[in-house]
Design brief:
Chain A is built from eleven helices and twelve strands. By secondary structure, chain A is of the alpha/beta class. In chain A, the strands form three sheets. Chain A has a six-stranded mixed beta sheet with strand order 6-7-8-3-9-10, sandwiched between helices. Chain A starts with a strand and ends with a helix. Helices cover 75% and strands 1% of the residues of chain B. Chain B has 14 helices and two strands, in the order H-H-H-H-H-E-E-H-H-H-H-H-H-H-H-H. In chain B, strand 1 and strand 2 form a beta hairpin. Classes of the chains: A alpha/beta, B mainly alpha. Chains A and B meet through helix 2 and strand 6 of A and helix 9 and helix 10 of B. Chain B: It is a multi-pass membrane protein.
Chain lengths: 282, 340
């Protein structure tokens, strides 16, 4: 599905990515993790065709990415972003219908039955009761579900998620990723997700790529990648990694520098202040 | 969408037709609408018996009034279309055809000719031709200022337009202050008017509307996607930079054409697309065509008032459009409280 060889990208005189090489076969859910500014979103923009690589070779479905016209690419690649959709006076249904743009002629017509596709997308995102409501009357979480329905209505084979859960509460986070994974499994799609939350990444993805300073520093299954050592070397912080009691996937417990076992009753300043405070701030 | 387009579009066209007919029969020499109709029909299908009107009456309707009415409709269509295009690309409710400084640019050329008495140095259409030229040059200057790394940023564009407009307006004001005997003529041109125009002016505008309207209609769906953001639009296959450039170019050419034949007529390009948006919603597939018709109706009635209210004196058209437009817009804003 995706083959990248020695890809680089420089933005504003700074090399933000590369050279990176990787291969992502079709029909998998891939996670891209790494610290802020590591080049994750740039990588995703190269895959979506919004940015062109400065050097190297990127092939999508066996064809160089730069060979595709934007509309051609949009017929099978969809992107879900973190900031969702703005408050507009368009209705939910109208926004979801916009997903059909790359399939339409200039009059807005397309062969087939777009109305039932849109209805199906609204149903799978649980938006049927909202279909005729205006976007400026929805909450942030609801608008992100509209963004998901829009991606579904685009009928892509490759879905790129750019930190889609950033502004969502935990209920919506799980709901969104559950929907995406069920859809991915059902239709054998390929998903590449940039995720900030290591626990979600480990829970939902089949394989993970770890990006740091524009390079891929680790790659493998969540069990291989999400380790105390990786977190220390990539994020520069100490953490405890435990298997999830149900799924067995590795889960990260953060460890503040001042962490200490809970004591009975109110903590007293005398016992809780770290004695060697230089250790705490190093 | 289709049903809405045919419904509103049909209604708007009927209203436009009725307005044209009515405006033709209003004037210092009154004509009943039936007579106007038969004169017009006679133009389309000449022949038959001796017509029951004089050659002078026919000349008033066809040469004087009809050309002015058609010109008013075209100027309104140009400005409202341009306003819709600018609002679509700049995504700013304050954007109007003059945001990028085109009006000041055209005014420079016109004011220069008037100041030095060169109104006819290349024939009777000297002012429109020169004003159009300086308007387009202004656009190029704004694009050059705003372009960074091959991209046209929306905020940079608006700021560049403001800067260029401020500079050029100062220049125009200076020319106004330089001219002593002809101060009024420059000022009057700046306030916009359709008096003493003819079919030649009409034919200057026709190609712009004939090309601008289809171009903007073609990009209406892309403008809809811009409402949800440039990046999401790019992800759906819109060539964002190319679309912005073409829509801005088409809108600016429409503006420059309108300004060069009629002077600066304010408020049409700002208000008409907003009113249409309040009526039919945010879909540019409706806003673009309905703005063209609505702008035509609006300027037609404003011009009819301008030439009849204080007859035989004329009020400057730009004054009338703002005088009606601003309170009406305020009323709509207050009543609908809709986000625009």
């Amino acid at each position: 599905m995706i083959e990248a060889t020695e890809l680089t990208k420089t933005i504003g005189g700074r090399r933000v990515l590369g050279p990176v090489s990787f291969e992502l076969p079709a029909k998998g859910m891939y996670g891209v993790i790494g610290p802020n500014g590591a080049g994750k979103s740039t990588l995703l923009s190269l895959l979506s065709g919004v940015l062109a690589p400065d050097s190297g070779h990127l092939s999508l479905r066996g064809r160089p990415s730069t060979d595709y016209r934007p509309r051609e690419l949009a017929r099978w690649v969809a992107v879900l972003e973190q900031d969702g959709l703005p408050r507009t006076t368009f209705s939910v249904r109208e926004v979801v219908e916009m997903a059909r743009f790359p399939f339409q002629n200039w009059l807005g017509d397309e062969p087939g039955d777009p109305a039932s596709l849109v209805a199906e997308a609204l149903r799978s995102a649980g938006l049927e009761p909202f279909a005729d409501r205006r976007m400026d009357r929805l909450s942030g979480g609801e608008r992100q579900r509209v963004a998901l329905a829009k991606v579904i209505a685009q009928q892509p084979e490759l879905i790129l998620l750019d930190e889609p859960t950033t502004f969502l509460d935990i209920g919506y986070q799980v709901q969104l990723l559950d929907t995406v994974r069920a859809w991915q499994r059902r239709q054998s799609l390929t998903v590449v997700a940039v995720l900030h939350d290591l626990n979600l990444a480990a829970q939902y993805c089949d394989r993970l790529l770890v990006v740091k300073d524009g390079a891929i520093v680790a790659e493998g299954t969540p069990e291989q990648v999400v380790t105390t050592e990786m977190i220390r070397s990539v994020y520069g912080t100490d953490a405890i990694v435990l298997p999830h009691p149900v799924s067995g996937r590795p889960q990260v417990l953060l460890q503040p520098a001042t962490a200490s076992p809970p004591t009975a009753g109110l903590p007293s300043a005398a016992t809780d202040l770290p004695t060697g405070s230089e250790v705490a701030y190093e | 969408m289709r049903r809405k387009l045919y419904g509103y579009g049909g209604g708007a066209l009927l209203l436009l037709g009725a307005s044209v007919l009515l405006a033709l029969s209003i004037g210092s020499a009154g004509f009943p609408p039936a007579k106007v109709w038969s004169i017009l029909l006679h133009q389309l299908a000449p022949g038959g018996a001796e017509p029951p009107w004089t050659a002078l009456e026919e000349a008033i309707i066809v040469q004087v009034r009809l050309s002015r009415v058609v010109l008013a409709v075209l100027v309104g269509a140009c400005l409202a279309l341009a306003g819709a295009g600018f609002q679509g690309v700049l995504r700013n409710p304050l954007a109007d055809p003059y945001t990028l400084g085109v009006a000041s640019g055209s005014s420079i050329g016109a004011a220069f000719l008037i100041l030095f008495g060169l109104q006819t140095f290349i024939g009777m259409y000297s002012i429109p031709i020169v004003a159009f030229g300086t308007g387009v040059l202004t656009l190029l200057a704004v694009f050059w200022l705003a372009r960074t790394q091959g991209r046209l940023g929306v905020e940079t564009l608006i700021l560049s337009g403001v800067v260029v407009q401020a500079f050029l307006s100062a220049f125009v004001s200076y020319m106004v202050s330089l001219s002593q005997g002809v101060v009024n003529e420059i000022l009057f041109w700046l306030m916009g008017s359709l008096s003493k125009r003819n079919w030649g002016h009409v034919s200057m505008l026709v190609p712009f509307v004939a090309i601008g309207l289809p171009v903007l209609l073609y990009y209406a769906r892309a403008l809809n996607l811009f409402v949800i953001g440039e990046r999401p639009a790019a992800h759906l296959g819109v060539r964002v930079e190319r679309t912005k450039l073409i829509v801005l170019l088409a809108s600016t050419l429409l503006t420059a054409a309108a300004v060069s034949v009629s002077g600066v007529i304010g408020f049409v390009g700002l208000v008409v697309p907003h009113v249409i948006r309040l009526m039919v919603g945010p879909d540019y597939r409706l806003i673009v065509p309905l703005s063209a018709i609505g702008g035509g109706i609006y300027v037609l009635w404003a011009d009819t008032l301008a030439r009849t209210l204080l007859s035989p004196k004329e009020i400057q058209l730009g004054i009338v459009t703002a005088f009606i437009g601003a309170p009406f817009f305020g009323y709509l804003l207050k009543r609908r409280k809709a986000s625009i």
